[in-house]
Amino acid sequence: MGGTGVPILLLHGLMGSGRTWHAQLDWLREFGRPYTFDAAGHGRPAPPELTTEAFVADLAAAVASITEPMVVIGHSMGGLHGWMFAARYPERVRALVVEDMAPDFRGRTAQDWARMIEAWPQPFPDEAAMLAYFGPVAGRYFLNSFAHGPDGYRLHGPVKTFRDISEEWGTRDFWAEWESVGAPALLLEGEHTITPPGQMRRMAEVNSRARHVLIPHAGHLVHDDRPEAYRTEVSAFLRSVLA
Fold first, then answer.
1. Which domains does the chain have, with CATH numbers?
2. Residue range 12-61, pLDDT digits in tens
3. Per-residue CA distances from 51 to 2, 57, 77, 88, 113 (Å)
4. CB-CB contact of 58 with 10 (8 Å)
5. In whole angstroms, what is the distance from residue 81 CA to residue 168 CA?
6. Using CA atoms, how far apart are residues 221 and 99, in angstroms rounded to an integer?
7. Which of 35, 59, 120, 199 could disulfide-pair with 102, CB 3.0 to 4.6 Å?
8. Widest Cα–Cα separation across the chain
9. 202 contacts: CB under 8 Å, gap ≥ 6
10. Please, which residues have CB within 8 angstroms of residue 34's CB and are 6 or more apart in sequence?
11. CA-to-CA distance for 127 and 152, rounded, in angstroms?
12. 3-state secondary structure of 54
């Protein structure tokens, strides 16, 4: 993706794609070489078992040729995969950014959410239809994620796959893996977060190398909702860890 220096690995959220980072690539090149990645199940086959560990193993295999320690930047699901990767392969992660993701969603279910997605009027015939249905922020996110064919825009994976990925998070927690992360970390939380209250702040309390920042007026898509605030915080963090 251009740039020189430290590799910067960008991990997207559930139902996203590597293309959702397009607006961040130019300024990230000031700090290193950005790499985007499409998670398994997002436009390519999913692992046989939809466990977080299986997705992290797929990620590790995909980036095996990057031998220098990386800055890993993840949004939502990508944030979880980022810290799980850092816990499993500490020598491969130089620093970590986690955007709007927490370790413990136990008791939550994705059933109603999945039914809502199944009711989306797919295919969306064009870009204007996408933006009208989802709004400017989420609409742009999905335009950069959906598969585009002759009949318009469609989800780039089965709803069942996305549902089951999310359902796993409701059955377990990832606190132990988070607490074992040794790399310096920046935790960015949107004011209108989807995470359980207080968990991202608690993540910084239990890991002395992490700092928590709440971004006012931002929703779950912090890097799209408040791009200047996102850039300011991430740039300051990268300057400190790469000095």
1. 7-106+174-242 (3.40.50.1820)
2. 999 999 999 999 999 999 999 999 999 999 999 999 999 999 999 999 99
3. 32, 10, 12, 15, 19
4. no
5. 13
6. 8
7. 199
8. 51
9. none
10. 1, 2, 3, 8, 9, 10, 21, 24, 25, 28
11. 9
12. helix
Residue with structure tokens 């702040």?
201
Single-letter residue type at 137: V
Instruction: Name residues whose C-beta falls within 8 Å of residue 135's C-beta, 6 or more positions apart in sequence.
Output: none
Mark out the alpha helices in the chain (DSSP H runs). Answer: 25-28, 52-62, 77-88, 111-118, 127-134, 136-143, 159-169, 175-179, 199-206, 222-225, 227-242
> Which two structure tokens, joined as six digits, stand for 1?
């993706």
Q: Tokens standing for 186?
A: 């920046």
Nearest partner of 240 among 205, 201, 208, 211, judged by Cα: 211
Give dist(CA 47, CA 55) in Å, integer. Answer: 7
Residue type at 61 in one-letter notation: A
The closest of 37, 30, 36 to 4, measured between CA atoms, is 30
Query: Tens of pLDDT along 172-193?
Result: 999 999 999 999 999 999 999 9
Report whether 60 contacts 88 (CB < 8 A). yes
Helices first, then strands: H and E counts in the chain: 11, 8
DSSP 8-class letter at 46: P
